[in-house]
Task: structure prediction
Amino acid sequence: MINWEKFLNIDRRWLYLLIAVVVVVPFFIRMGLPVVPSDEVRSIYNLVDSLGPDNAIFIGWDFDPGTEAENQPMGVAVLRHALDRHVPVFITAVSPLGQGLAEQGAASVFDTRIPGNFVYVPWAEWEPFRAAGYVGRDSLESAWKAAGNSLPEGARGWVFEGVDFALLGYLPYFGLVVLGMGTSIATQYPTDAYGNNLREMPMLRAHKNLREIDLAVTLAGSTACMYWVVYGTSRVGLPVAFGVTAVMATDYYPYIQSGQIVGMMGGLRGAAEYEVLEHEGGHTETTGKAYRGMDVQSLAHILIILFVILGNIAYFAGGFHKKTALKSGR
Amino acid sequence: MYETIGLWVAAILTLAVFSFLYKENPLYRFAEHVVVGSSLGYTIVITYQRVLYPRLVEPVFLHGESLVLIVPAMLGLLYVTRFFPRIAWLSRYPMAFLLGMGMGMAFPYDMQAYILRQIQATLIPLYTPGAPWYNTVGAVVIVLGTLAGLIYFFFSKPHKGPFFGFGSKVGIWIIMIGFGATFGFTVMGRISLLIGRVQFLLSDWLGLLH
Amino acid sequence: MKRTVPMMIAMIGGIIMMIQYFIPHQVSQDVFNYYTEWAPLVGSFALVLGVGSLTRVHIHKIRAKAPNWPYSYAVLIPLYLIPVFAFFLPASIGGGTGKPSVFDFMYSRVQIPIQATMFSMLAFYIASAAFRAFRAKSALATILLVTAIIVMLAQVPIGDLFGRWLPDTGLWILRFPNLAAKRAIELGVGFGMLATCLKIIFGVERGWLGGAGE
Result:
């Protein structure tokens, strides 16, 4: 005869241990179950894939370290995709902590010790070429190569700060920043996060305000993502895509259906879907951290569902739905 | 060396926080307190670098331009009066400026994004020729479900009768399905955050994954 | 001066900014530009308030030898050490904001791991709650749990092993009934936000005046 009360009052640390085992072990047993991308993620990917050096996008690194595990892979995936298409990328952040995460995300894409990454050329380093008049992407890269610069083995290409990439960083009251950028980006960000004059950057000269930007991807762990929709989409028709945590993702389906956002990556699954699309599109040699985590996610979900079912079986089999309070345990 | 020490410190602090799951302990408490101070310390530096220096210190005090910016600076400094009870009422001025003008500015944009566009998106045809049957059912669910949900949250009338009574019953069912979906995603989100930390420990720290 | 003038500032400022939206004249645009330039500056000084409050609370704890008072040093030391290192000390001894530096170390090797791990603990709590608290006590609770289970399986690759119908059902739930529910809630929240805006502007809501004495 099963003691249902004892079963239900099991020390919760056993449950914690089970979850820990189920999260750790699958990392060593690669199941490699396929991840089928949804339309919501595919629409973001297709839009970025349709862009090129004459376009430009914003990536809003609008989250804090608490949600790094979900949002950082999304940001890295979109950044990598855009840079591979030579789409100029402006990066912003709604919080000081987000700016640091953006720097880390960018650093991971520019780490040439890992094959498939990009070589980052800071603003000051290509100053002589700027002075010589090489500001177009193709002419700059040709001149850069002609000067004896070559890509390390495995690197996918050069990323020139001010032409391909600019980290604008954090500013407070981000709703006002988005509103202000609708008229002029440089008024809100006279310099980037490293003190470089934004008005001298070719990518800013070609895209002076948000009307000339083709997409803003906001990665958020809070309602900060709505700044872009409320003050960007509503004001200047800026196309916006969301990369939000799973907790928030279900709340934003109305905005996809209304057309206010182009698409949405929801949680680690959304990041994994984008990685799969990138890999299928030939932009990366392998999938990334998010895809790797989906095997673990599968087994953890099965365990949680088992917990729910077992808990309910014990509850009803023990007759606790008829009795007064079940005596609670540790 | 810096990287190695950093990795070990990060791993030890990660395990220190996880140790709370077994039992509360001094290492966890230490980490809990450090993160509060560290977060604010970091914010001070970034706020000065990104806002106060380029927008106030440099133009006004270094170049002597845009002296009008002293006005918002003085207004902002009034916040400090909150520490002095006799003149704490002065801190209401910067709050009035930010709150009042912020609310006024946000009003038309919020109306457009949260209300008008959403209502517009609900006024959709229930039947589109050529659409699969589940999309047609879905369109009906969107239109009637949204209405039923709104009826459920309308508390100025009792939930009785064919319109409010039946409508609110359908509404709560739709809302429960919505909450169920959110719950499922919440579980996914929480597990994902744990996956991130385990990936750090196994891959970055211990180097067990490739 | 103490209550009426701030409320008048809020009202006049609020009405001006609402009207500004509809007027394309240059004067209207100038008002908007002044506000976007001034508001971040004014708002940044609220940081002084935050730092001051935190310092005051913890110094009081240390002086009064309140329970767990030594941990207050763990709050105050990084709070002041990070800006001192970032602004005043040379890079040779870990100053500045580059890499390597105390600033970078505290952010990337202390702040991020602790904050990320604290959030990740929720996974354990939700597992415990799944076993101990999520009960199908009524038809509504049952529908909530069944929907959650379908969505949870649909969102992971293992769900595809049950057949395409499971992920397709999960997506249909998200795109239609979930959408309807969330839209109803968001419309309510939206109306509430607009009502709050108007209440603050017209002085009906005065809670923001509190905490500053008479």
Remarks:
- The mean pLDDT of chain A is 92.
- The CA atoms of residues 141 and 195 of chain A lie 24 Å apart.
- Chain A touches chain B through 57 residues (CB under 8 Å).
